[in-house]
Amino acid sequence: MVKQKIADCLQQAVAKTQQEGTLAPGALPEIIIEHPQNPSHGDFASSLPLKLARTTRMPPLAVAEKIVEKISLPPEIDHTTIAPPGFINFTLRNEWLTEQVETILAAGDLYGNLVLGKGKNIQVEFVSVNPTGPLHVGHGRGAVLGSTLADVLSSTGYRVEREYYLNDTGNQIELFGHSLYVRYLQNFGKEADMPPDGYHGNYVIDLAKEIAEEHGDKFLNVPQKEALEAITELGFNKIINSVKEDLLLLNVKFDKWFSEKSLYKGEQYNKVMALLESGNYVTKKENAVWFASSLLGEDKDNVLVRSDGSPTYFASDIAYHYNKFIERKFDTVIDIWGADHQGHVPRMKAVMKALGQDPEQLKVIICQLVTLHRGKETLKISKRSGDIITLREVIDEVGADACRFSFLSYSAESQMDFDLELAKKQSADNPVYYVQYAHARIASILRLAQQRQIDYSQGDVSLLSTEPELTLIRHLIMLPEVIERVAANLEPHHLPYYAQALATVFHSFYKQCRVVSQDETLTKARLKLVRATQITLAKTLHLMGMTAPETM
RNA sequence: GCCCCUGUAGCUCAGAGGAUAGAGCGCUGGCCUCCGGAGCCAGGUGCAAGGGUUCAAAUCCCUUCAGGGGUACCA
To answer: Do residues A184 and A219 touch, judged by C-beta distance below 8 A?
Structure first.
């Protein structure tokens, strides 16, 4: 990328000045190339002279002059300027810019793809909600974040596996099964009490009714243990299916649904416990088995096996990560968890050390909670309490594309206020439609060109020279940078902002530059530009898991 | 108490130690003889408070205040 070339040429120029003695020798700081806020400062800027002022004992502007004297610019750059207090600004050559239109056309759908991953295996595990109830907006946020991240990473050369961890064993699923069984009994007028921490949501009653309709009263006549097991499984499958449906509505797909139970059926659990024991990380006290996290710098130890002999969620998760790293050999694992799991992060990092892995290989994104409002009213989304607004209801009200765009617009660490009233009210003026409208508008222009049988394959992009045209190209070529940033920092929220900026410059270009006009050669050149814009916009929308509509 | 996240425009949010801190919504004005007006152009207010580091701080450090989450033999 151009940024790197600029950094390289700066570095060489400094080396030259130091050799020749015009600048005092010294360690070179990291060369950071940025985009100036003010376009009149050029396309790229470096504050290297400011950073070198101290070691060279010269005023920054003088340092800048010495560097620029020795610089040999890459062909992409037209010229440099020096600006106070000590910047070197770089401006791209117009010829190079217009050539990028051809580059984008040639790349097509692959435009923006990078080779960062070099085939490394990376797993993104997300959602992984207990299958004990419907998904809510918070889960939707994690789903959108995870799926977008996975898509971006796979477009940058990683081999990505998208995984959902199914908690199909343990306390919560038993509690859910018990609650469902009670509702089933009640459905037939039998007296039964909900378990103390049971699931009181109305959906459990509905599920019980469904099961009663499908299977009749046959579970009344079998031993309770058997009935409980059967009903738990029926309920579990129903919930999983509806989870899958909800996720599909949001265009979220998984490569693998990983069963927690399988950790115990296979030998992962026993193997990893033996491994921890051999490393002396396991202690026994108060009739329970503990992981000695404190040996690894943690505040306190954590229970692995309860005094009743059942393993904790933490123990499962250790076996699960053993499976991820050691059995399946992922180079990197990204776990996306809700803020309520934040305390779990240091524990798992400690586990990584105990397993002999680099904790850096495990990247945990903590997604802050979502609060749902309808105007001033705060809506409940917790499964355990009564009435809730589900993710599906939100998708129905707001639409999948708009949901994705909204969820993506927030950085993971910021809490999200989702106002249903606002989301709906704004829907016509929502940025999401603004972006999609730009795409539909382009499609419409290209349809017109086709109707008039304009073959623009030989269009001469060097005719693109006005300010709106060049500004548009400048934005088109930012896509790879945006993708790189998203992949490097695991921050998908840059995508919607980029999409919006790109749509804005396109709409502005459209207003100022008539595309299909009497001027045949200019028409063909602009059609190329418009098509390149469509490619870029569509790529951005698809990375966000959204549709790129031809008409609206 | 201790730990994590957050505090930026009336509202919802971006902001990669750098130059005049940006979007959307809302509000007020303009703009269609011509490719889609779900559009374009213009208009204004702001970094929670106080210290520090730095040539340069919304960004890094410390303190205070405020909101959210965690601190279970729940997950």
So the answer is: yes
Q: Report pLDDT for A297.
A: 83
Tokens of A430: 């929502």
Q: What is the DSSP letter of A79?
A: E
In a domain, A451, yes or no: yes
Dihedral of the alpha carbons of A438, A441, A447, A448, in degrees to the nearest 10: -140
pLDDT given for residue A21 in this prediction = 85
Q: Identify the CA nearest to A404 among candidates A376, A435, A375, A373.
A: A435
pLDDT tens for A331-348 read 999 999 999 999 999 999
Average pLDDT, chain A: 94
Task: For residue A193, give the amino acid letter.
Answer: D
Final residue of a structural domain among A26, A58, A92: A92
Q: Which of A419, A371, A420 is nearest to A393 (CA)?
A: A420
A338 contact partners, CB below 8 Å, separation of at least 6:
A138, A142, A366, A367, A369
Q: What is the pLDDT of residue A388?
A: 74
Show the low-confidence residues of chain A (pLDDT under 50).
none
Domain region containing A516: 430-543
Residue closest to sugar C1' of B39 by CA: A507
What pLDDT shows up at residue A387?
Answer: 63
Measure, in angstroms, how far nucleotide B70 C1' is from residue A413 CA.
Answer: 15
Structurally, chain A folds into a number of domains equal to 2
Instruction: Tell me what ipTM this predicted complex has.
Output: 0.96
Does the CB of A54 fall within 7 Å of any strand B atom?
A: yes
**A224 located within any domain:** no
- What is the pLDDT at residue A134? 92
Evaluate if the CB of A466 falls below 7 Å from strand B.
no
> What is the model's pLDDT at position A50?
94
Strand B: which bases are under 7 Å from protein Cβ? 3-7, 11-26, 34-41, 55-56, 67-75
- Identify the pLDDT of residue A30: 87
In-domain check, residue A457? yes
The CATH number of residue A61's host domain is 3.30.1360.70
Query: Which of A92, A124, A158 is at the close of a domain?
Result: A92
Q: A408 in a domain, yes or no? A: no
